Amino acid sequence: MSQEEFTREVAARWRRTTSHSLWATLIFCALTESAPAQETRLVPNTPTFAAPAAQANPEEEEFIKPSRPGIANPAEIQEAGVLQLEYGYDGNLQREDFRSQQTAPLALRFAATRRLLLEFDLDTVISERTEETAPRMTGVGDTRLGFQIVALEDTESHPALAFAYYVKLPTASEEMGLGTGRVDHRVVALLSKKFGETNLDFNVAYLNVGRETGSGRESGGQVALSVSREFQNNFGFEAELAGQSEDDSQPRGIFALGALTYRANRRLRFDGGLRFGLNPDAPRVGVFAGLTVGVGRLYRRR
How do strand 143-152 and strand 137-139 relate by DSSP bridges? Predict the structure, then answer.
């Protein structure tokens, strides 16, 4: 082999070696670049798995919305599907037409939807004495059926607004003097606003009741303003000023109410306190105690 042929053979081998090395280098670089690219694609997917943890837990929402112990009810209602039971004792002392009156009111409040509440009320026991020497009359009280519609929910720009209607069915004995034996109607407008941890409820109602004596009907009004608050130790208070011109769930008159509350858990709250009559028509003093229980959720809102 001549010197010229030898030189050409060495140059050809060098080119082949260089070409193989170049391809190896390019493949290596492609592999090393693809790994970071794959890691970069995984990063955006990471929050997808963590997103559900940031969502609000529906179990932390308010389960019950007590309407006891005052006359003013909140405009907003409990969670949809929740059945709420309220039961207690209510006593009034010394009014012109009775010496003492005691009742055991029961209320079932069911949130059929997020904005519709169905209510059933019954005075399971009513006991009344008109005079000191007169015998005490005891029996079942009247029944009330009603519904409440939430028109607006509480926001920063406006309070919650609702409307309600109740009809009283005369299940109490008229002969024993425990009821009028007439059907009564009540139409209510409700406003509620929350200021920090303080709740403000205002109700105004039109009353249409059957006369206790004789035939015919009478119209009247009812106004109630309530302020309530619960503290971090689960104790709370409620203060209310209310008045009505006709007998309804409470006798006619003007009242001032003060109550203490205790929330044992999200499903159970206790209450108790005193009510004072501020005019001659109202009973001088009243005492009450009771509880509100979230019986259960009949269905969950989707």
Answer: unpaired
